[in-house]
Design brief:
Blueprint: E1 2-5, E2 7-13, E3 16-22, E4 27-30, E5 39-43, E6 47-53, E7 60-65, E8 71-77, E9 85-91, E10 98-105, H1 126-129, H2 157-168, H3 180-183, H4 232-235, H5 237-241, H6 250-258, H7 263-271, H8 278-291, H9 298-303, H10 328-338, E11 341-342, E12 345-346, H11 392-395, H12 427-436, E13 449-453, E14 458-461, H13 468-479, H14 484-488
Antiparallel strand pairs: 1-4, 2-3, 3-10, 5-6, 6-9, 7-8, 7-10, 11-12, 13-14
This protein binds heme C (2 copies).
The site of one heme C (HEC) has 24 residues, from helix 12.
Length: 497
Amino acid sequence: MLWLSPFKYIQSNHHLLTLVLLLSAPLTVNSQELNILDHTIDFGPDQVTLEWTSQPGDFYTFWQSTDLDKWQALERLLPADLGSSTTHTEAFIDTPTQAFFRVSKNLDTTPDLPAVPYTYTDPLPAHFTTNSFPLQYRVQNAAADNDNAPLNNPTTDAGATLGRVLFYDKSLSSNQTISCASCHQQAFGFSDPLTQSVGFEGGLTRRHSMALGNAALYLPGKFFWDERAATLEDQVLQPIQDPVEMGLTLPELEAVVSSKDFYPPLFEAVFGDPAINSDRISKALAQFVRSLVSANSRYDRARARVTDVLDPFPTTESTAGADDNFTTQENLGKDLFMRRNTNGNSRPLTCIDCHVSEAFVSPWRPGPAQNATSTTVNNGLDLPNAIDRGVRETTGNIADSEKFKMPSLRNIAVRPPYMHDGSLATLEEVVEHYSSGLQPHPNLQQPLLLVISEDPLELEAIQLDFTPEEKSALVAFLKTLTDDTLLTHEKYSDPFE
Ligand code: HEC
Ligand code: HEC
């Protein structure tokens, strides 16, 4: 059947129907191309009516755009709102000269899960459970002692499995286009390559996406660059409700998850009964995020062959031929990362003083100076009064200005750009920042800050001042932290593919 109407069909895939309305120029449309929803459309002067047959369990989002770029969800129709045959009328937002409408249908794919769940609770290697830094390394401890899992939500294989499905499920966003994994991509160490990530309607996040490896191993247990989430269980529901990121309300989230046949058995396997609510969704997502532990990089394999972390790692492969040796250059980089006195030079502070434990996470002891109310630090990226005030935005404490939590450095080589604002494009730029670019911020971690004069206040940052050879060695060392298990293992991958 051919219709004459002012609408031109422009795009469709299995779940998405896009219509273009050109109020001025009537166009011909072939309804055969519109068979996704098997529907009829009626256009009034200021509204559009759609009729289609909905399947049990289906839900739809109906939305409008004036430029095909930014989409506004007009209404979300959940299974409970829909009869077997549905007539739905939407008023135009304004009276546009041009408008586009899109109806998206829930994704109907089911996850492909192994009959026996994967193991997410492997024992950690010895260098995660024992601290071998010498006593004078005051802020170091065993990475495993920094686990932030609460007693009421220990990670189990069933829980992480459910969390994995939720993490990759695009129907957890208002228009079924975005999942957690859109911005936390496995191949990029669960961060993403964009400076700012793109949310469900094309909007940008304020900051760069954080890598999720070793998120479990941060004792204060606070999340986000500015630590505004008190626990991981609190954190995981925030992107879902964020108006830029995923755009659902918690009742909508519960309805969407409840509408799918495959979820109740997964909830039952974790919680003992199939009830679905946002508290359980939060617990399962948190378990999956905590399961993303990186402990099998080349650093870890070479590390397993020495007793003390400061010992040089073996420079020849073991008989296992397991790619478990370091080069001389990587050992120099490790020394520079871990020792203040290296290569005949002495520095007031070095990388390990802030990127702590062998999980290389944010520090866990309260900052010594400046009455800080958080354990986060300032690394001289900006001067005061930056647009982004960091942890101060959460605590209101001036001593927390421009301080940031940082993700673990595991997999750092595969996930540029760097820092909360994605302002550094390469590892070379990062090392140069510490070598010569530190800004004299009043909260710059001591003892990197010199007071030149009190009145007027004049501050100076001590630069770490690496030679070209040392800079290359540091970059080479950072590349040993790439962990293919985390980047490629199926148990962390998309079960819908
Ligand atoms: C649209 C992109 C986007 C989506 C979708 C998204 N995130 Fe994020 N995520 C970010 C950004 C950006 C940050 C840093 C935000 C900040 O600190 O202000 C972040 C931070 C985090 C952190 C904090 C890590 C840390 O060490 O403090 C966790 C955990 C996290 N996200 C998990 C999730 C989960 C789980 C989901 C799905 C429910 C999700 N994210 C969905 C972009 C996204
Ligand atoms: C004074 C504490 C401190 C020292 C010393 C320090 N860092 Fe950092 N580092 C931080 C903080 C804080 C951030 C996050 C800052 C931000 O995003 O604004 C960070 C971020 C990074 C990042 C980017 C992380 C990401 O996920 O984007 C890398 C890489 C890094 N540091 C490497 C190093 C290396 C290599 C050294 C030693 C040469 C070093 N750091 C020394 C505190 C420190």
